[in-house]
Write a structure and sequence with these properties.
The complex is a heterodimer of chains A (about 220) and B (about 190). Chain A has about 220 residues and is mainly α. Chain A has helices spanning about 1-5, 10-15, 20-25, 30-50, 55-70, 85-95, 105-115, 125-140, 145-155, 160-170, 170-190, 210. Chain A has a domain at about 10-100: Rna Polymerase Sigma Factor, Chain: A (Orthogonal Bundle), CATH 1.10.1740. Chain A is built from twelve helices and no strands. Chain B has helices spanning about 5-20, 25-35, 40-60, 60-65, 70-80, 90, 95-115, 130-140, 145-160, 175-180, 185-190. The chains are: A mainly alpha (about 220), B mainly alpha (about 190).
Chain lengths: ~220, ~190
């Protein structure tokens, strides 16, 4: 880890904005490109990992993303952060690879990390949390690509609505509606699991399809 | 045909903003006030909060993950070579002077070598070219005894006989023309035998 930290760019490079680093890299300053790489390497790796569920695929996605960024340096004009552009490339590359549905990302490793981080938790609690995590991620897998990427970008990468809109290249209102739709779909899925304490959807807020008036009027005497 | 009042639809739209942290405090208070008076929206708000927290916890281990990828792998993928960062004015005067000296020396080496290469083969005298020294040595008696006697007999015969033409035979004389053509040992075979 010390070697890795030794390879990291100098603090002067880390203070520079993405625009300055892009212009410097365009002029041949490889340290500037390395600074960009170290700045967004882990985020892109996690994004690829969340979509493909394969660490080797996630590494390939990160490498391909930055190699495309290097080849596109001449035409890159980042107004603010380069993150939306990089994430958009990473999302496209991730969806070009076939995701492994139903596979949970090494739950043993995650549980081991939790054990080391919180010694006061009992193994049963950790196992229960791992199971809840598996259920939630499996429910996310049932979403469509457009809704799943919004959930991943917001809850894992921590992007706000404006940044997500830049990544998926659509208006903020569309992102908001997709996120809300995804949450309602997740609510419908997770209501089948009593561990979450979510009451069934039919008794609460109906889905958008039920909010529309029925196309055929019920016959007289038919229970509505 | 509207199944829900407008307040519930507005509250539902505000819930998405609530979980992204982009809901104004005034709108949040309005949403909470509406949830207090509406059991459906209160349950929806509670469930969506539960799901939001569950999603946050589900992705928490992923947020701790990282990779040890190096930029060298990216350069390899992009087929680029790392170029030197320091430009020529950052190298210093001594460095530039040494580079200029090496460049001049190399240029001189190339030009000097090319002068030798530029000599044409025609300028080199051929082995069979006429030579004044060779002609003079052919007229002189050879140093070897047997050759000298032969040369002397040839000379006397040439002087005493009028039929012998006065022309000078080439090296080797009229008796051994074939051997005269050997150019390498012309010193020993130049005289008559």
């Amino acid at each position: 880890m010390t070697e890795q930290s030794a390879k990291r760019p100098a603090p002067s490079e880390e203070r520079r904005t993405d625009r300055e680093l892009v212009y410097a890299a365009r002029d041949g300053d490889m340290l500037a490109f390395d600074a960009l790489f170290y700045r967004y390497r882990d985020g892109i790796y996690r994004l690829g990992l969340a979509i493909t569920k394969d660490p080797s695929h996630a590494e390939e996605i990160a490498v391909d993303t930055f190699s495309r960024a290097y080849r596109a340096l001449a035409r890159l004009e980042p107004e603010g952060s380069l993150r939306p552009w990089l994430y958009r490339v990473a999302v496209n590359l991730s969806y070009n690879r076939r995701p492994r549905k139903g596979v949970i990302l090494s739950p043993l490793e995650d549980s081991a990390n939790d054990t080391f981080q919180s010694e006061e938790r009992s193994p049963s609690v950790l196992a229960e949390q791992a199971e809840l995590r598996r259920i939630v991620l499996a429910a996310v897998d049932t979403l469509g690509p457009k809704h799943r990427i919004v959930v991943v970008l917001h809850y894992m990468n921590g992007l706000n609505l404006a940044e997500i809109a830049q990544v998926v290249d659509c208006p903020i209102g569309t992102v908001k509606s997709r996120l809300h739709y995804a949450l309602r779909r997740l609510r419908a899925h997770l209501s089948a699991h009593p561990e979450f304490g979510i009451e069934p959807m039919t008794l609460l807020m109906p889905s958008s399809r039920r909010m529309v008036a029925p196309a055929v009027e019920p016959l007289p005497g038919e229970p509505q | 045909m509207r199944l829900f009042p407008v307040a519930c639809r507005a509250a539902e739209q505000k819930m998405a903003d609530l979980f992204t942290g982009e809901l104004h405090i005034r709108e949040r208070l309005e949403l909470e006030a509406h949830a207090d008076s509406c059991a459906r929206c209160d349950a929806a708000l509670r469930d969506l909060s539960t799901i939001s927290v569950a999603l946050d916890r589900a992705y928490a281990p992923l947020r701790q993950r990282g990779t040890l990828l190096s930029p060298a792998r990216v350069r390899l993928a992009a087929r680029v070579e790392p170029r030197p960062v320091a430009t020529w004015w950052r190298v210093g005067f001594v460095g530039r002077l040494s580079e200029a000296t090496m460049a001049l020396g190399f240029a001189a080496l190339v030009l000097g070598g090319s002068l030798d290469i530029a000599v044409k083969p025609d300028a080199i005298p051929a082995a069979s070219a006429p030579s004044v020294i060779k002609d003079y040595m052919r007229t002189q008696p050879p140093y070897e005894e047997t050759a000298y006697l032969r040369w002397l007999r040839f000379q006397l015969r040439a002087i005493g006989s009028a039929s012998v033409p006065a022309v000078r035979y080439p090296a080797g004389g009229q008796y051994d023309v074939e051997q005269v053509t050997i150019e390498d040992d012309w010193l020993n075979t130049a005289g008559p035998r």
